[in-house]
Amino acid sequence: MRQLAVLLCLSFAVLLFSAEEAWADGFDGTWRGSYTHAECWDADIEIHVDNTSVSVGLTYLKELGAPVEMTISFPGTVDFGGNLQATSSQIEGPKGNNWHVNLYGTLLDQAQVTYQEKEFSLCEGTVALEQVSTSEDPLLDFVIEEMAEEKFHALVIGNNNYLHLPKLRTPINDANMIGELLEKRYGFEVTTLLDAGRIELLDMIHEFQNKLTITDNLLIYYAGHGELNHKIDKGYWLPVDAKRSSPANWISNADIADALMGFRANHVLLVVDSCYSGTLLRTIGMAPKESTDRLGWIKRVGSKFSRTALTSGSSEPVVDSGGGGHSIFARYLLKALQENNRPYFTGKELFDEVEVPVALNAPQTPQYSDIFGAGGEGGDFIFIRQ
Predict the structure, then answer these.
(1) Which of 34-38, 149-153, 204-208, 346-350 has the weakest average pLDDT?
(2) How many CA atoms lie within 13 A of 307 on its CB side?
(3) Is 70 helix (H, G, I), strand (E, B) or coil?
(4) Per-range mean pLDDT, top range of 122-131, 203-212, 321-330
(5) CB 88 within 8 A of CB 101
(6) Which helix (H) or strand (E) holds 218?
């Protein structure tokens, strides 16, 4: 096990540096350590080095050790001598915005850690970061470690046997198969509702709203009838006791978004296979954007609240067959989840797998976006394969 010590300086002055554009394979790996000081905020430090890049992550902790929901990351360089340099500016710090961060040191020697905050005097100390063993994908180690305490829940709803509307053929089968796959392949705790009425469905959403915490992630899958009120341009889920002639038992997309506002869960993903499901996203139309810095991107979307939706179509009816016992959308959703070989992926990456094949085989185009007015902060749902 090799030791790494660095000098870390955070202040409100811009710090500039120059670095050689060279890389040292001998220093590849992940380095971790913690900095503590009686008068300053504690920080966990993690540095990933490979033959093309350096990524630095700092997670700030409260004085009593309770995690603060804030991790910053920025790129850096390392030369053939093991000299490490990384800088970032205009980032959010634990005491405010517009922090300028400069991290420098060597992968061979001990060094000081210093930083300064507006309310505190300059704090000094030493830190040694140990090189830790990693898999072939260093991001996998980060994702697993960061989400080790998190739980994954799924509320899976499939409605076939409507009391006042035409019966559907595939939602129950789709819901059962997706729930089983989420449980066995991705470690979800699955709750299944089949042929659910309005009260049963809303009561279950309310139950999840009350029991989930910041360490929980929730996927809600709904397959069933949907409706669009053309006069007010609003979409609805139709429980099995709904009537086309009366909206009394309809559940509007606005009701769903309002319910999500009350969730304390870290990430919530709606997967909706119904007619007019895309109206859930109409008011924003913005999906989480990937970055060329994958580590930084995963950290960003993983650390921010997300309220996103993957829908089987836009503002159009969708097909309830054509997928070999499943809807077209469910067929390719199941295919993507079953055939995935990646240890982790995001909701946006799941959408990328289903969008084109569904659009090529049915008159509908899946959508993926943040849900407007639901409390999201630009994060994204992360799946971890068991």
Answers:
(1) 34-38
(2) 20
(3) strand
(4) 203-212
(5) yes
(6) strand 216-223
Q: What are phi and psi of 376, to 5 degrees?
A: -70, 160
Helix (H) or strand (E) holding 269: strand 267-273
H-helix segments, 294-339:
294-303, 328-339
Question: Reduced to 3 states, what is the DSSP secondary structure of residue 309?
Answer: strand
Q: Which two tokens stand for residue 360?
A: 């090529």
Tell me: the pLDDT tens digits for 178-228?
999 999 999 999 999 999 999 999 999 999 999 999 889 999 999 999 888
pLDDT in tens, 221-240: 999 998 888 787 788 999 99
Q: What CATH number is given for 151-384 in this structure?
A: 3.40.50.1460
- Percent of the chain topping pLDDT 90: 33
Check residue 40 and give its pLDDT.
Answer: 57
Domain assignments of the chain as residue spans, ordered by start: 3-134, 151-384
DSSP 231: T
Mode of pairing for the β-strands spanning 234-237 and 226-229: antiparallel
With beta carbons less than 8 A apart as the criterion, state whether 194 and 158 touch: yes
Which of 58, 43, 45, 50 lies closest to 5 in space, CA to CA? 45
CB neighbour class for 242 (10 Å; exposed up to 12, middle 13-18, buried from 19): buried
Burial of 211 (0-12, 13-18, 19+ CB in 10 A): exposed
Matching residue, tokens 């040292």:
24
Q: Can you tell me the mean pLDDT for 135-160?
A: 76
**How does residue 121 score in pLDDT terms, banded at 50, 70 and 90?**
very low
Q: Which of the 8 DSSP states describes residue 7? A: E
CA distance 69 to 80: 35
Are 212 and 151 within 8 A, CB to CB? Answer: no
This prediction's pTM: 0.64
The Cα 48–Cα 326 span in angstroms is: 43
